[in-house]
Amino acid sequence: MNGGTSLMLADPPGPRGRRRILVGSVAALVVFAGLVALALARLASKGQLDAEIWRVFLDEPELRTLLWKGLLATLRVAVTGMVLAVGLGLLLALGRMSSRRVVRLPATVAVELLRSLPVLMLILFAYLGLPALGWQVSTFWALVLGLTVYNGAVLSEIFRAGVGSIDRGQAEAAAALGLRPLQAFRLVLLPQAVRRMSPTLVSQLVILLKDTSLGFVIAYSELLRSGRGAVEYLGSRYALPVYTVLALIYIVTNGLLSLLARWLDRRQDRRLGAPAAIGPVDPPLTRG
Amino acid sequence: MTGATRADRWDRREGLAIDAVLDNLDIFAEGLRRTVGLSLFATVAALVGGTLLATMRVGPVPPLRWAGTVYVEVVRNTPLTVVFFFVVFVLPQVDIVFSYFTFAVVALSIYHAAMVCEAVRSGINGVDVGQVEAARALGLTFSQNLRLVVLPQALRTVVQPLGSVISALIRNTSIAAAFGVQELTGVVQRLTTANPDAVIAILLGGVVGYLILTLTLAGGLAVTERRLERVR
């Protein structure tokens, strides 16, 4: 994510370059301002900017309660799904790295299959398919199960890549110390890998949180469905304000998740010393 | 619509579960065709839009950089379903009305352009700095540098991340099912309602459809990567 190459693309601008950049900036700002003005004028002419429809959040306490309940339902699915997906992901990663073919093969097939399907199909499998097999599931669990199997498969690949990036010497040293493969994974490889993969891990968890909004397809009353219900009740004029607020809630929640992850990273760095990205945690024990 | 009646007929005759799939094969094919259509149009639009956004984000003009960053950050943290809501329910409020298919293509393109942008940008940042410096030393301008030196090299490292974006796009077309497009997932939903005793078989039919698409893409990517490897 560093701007290394992109910052070097052009020479530091001289007086002429600076003037051209200034002209470009002004032109870009003018164009953006024009586009925004055009959009606002269009919205205003259709009554989409009337204070009345935007004040609905102040005027209707029920709307606030509805959205709040929706957010809680979304978070309930997201947290349950994240915990289960991480668990499943670890199992699948272990399975794929196993030395036994009987374990490795099914795990590989499962991961590759689940990863190449739409999450929505997997949610529908849980929602429509499980009852057809005589196993009744609530919409909550159908959603959680769909999200878990898909994200479990994706997370297992992230875990595997993370563990694969750890110096081989670590695994060899663990084996030399008499640790069994599972112990080596749990005590030596995973703790080091977690710190390296935390950015990818967090963006996958953000994807999981966003995908909870698919609950509206199977009529689970999470945030999005609550908002949709509100618009159906209030009238389609209220689509813009309600969906704008929904989008903001998602953006803020996802932002908080990323912040939380960064904070955890920093805390861990303080506890364990130097950041892992720079080098091995314990240099004297590794070669090179 | 002939499919529903035929499906009903099967329901009455209690055909074997697999027959519910075989007998509705043309409906499946139609759904698959729509999924492919959505994927193709949205992929082209997202590639063009995303490359433009990436150029804005690495360029020297600050307002363009800010605009690109804001776009990517906003879209990346918004669920695709919410993007669909804006396109399908808000645009008609200002008298912008298209078919559901077009709406779906628009929503998919808006969302995945941000992902394409990030993939391309990481590719650009992955190009060795020495290459860029050498090009500058030869007197190439920003756009020459980008066009002749950086992007051709970034293309190689970017094939894989772009491939995952396109694969995600193909899989995400399934969300259009909830917005009035009878693509593969929509077909599966409709057929399962019409054939309650063949739910699993129909779901598996949908799975096979998606596997055909994603595996074809994976194969195409492998070939592309090998080609680019040989050029080097």
Structure explained in plain terms:
- The complex is a heterodimer of chains A (about 290) and B (about 230).
- By secondary structure, chain A is mainly alpha-helical.
- Chain A is built from twelve helices and no strands.
- Helix content of chain A is about 75%, strand content about 0%.
- The longest helix of chain A is centred in the N-terminal third of the chain and has 37 residues.
- In chain B, about 80% of the residues lie in helices and about 0% in strands.
- Chain B is built from ten helices and no strands.
- Chain B is flat, with a radius of gyration of 22 Å.
- The chains are: A mainly alpha (about 290), B mainly alpha (about 230).
- The interface between A and B is large, with 59 and 63 residues.
Radius of gyration of chain A, in Å, reads 25 Å
Strand content of chain A: under 5%
Q: Choose one word for the global shape of chain A.
A: flat
What separation lies between the terminal Cα atoms of chain A? 26 Å
- Give the largest interface: A-B, 59 and 63 residues
Q: Kindly state the number of beta strands of chain A.
A: 0
* Average predicted local confidence, pLDDT of chain A: 87
Order of helices and strands of chain B: HHHHHHHHHH
Poorly predicted parts of chain A: 274-288
- What is the strand tally of chain B? 0
The first-level CATH class name of chain B: Mainly Alpha
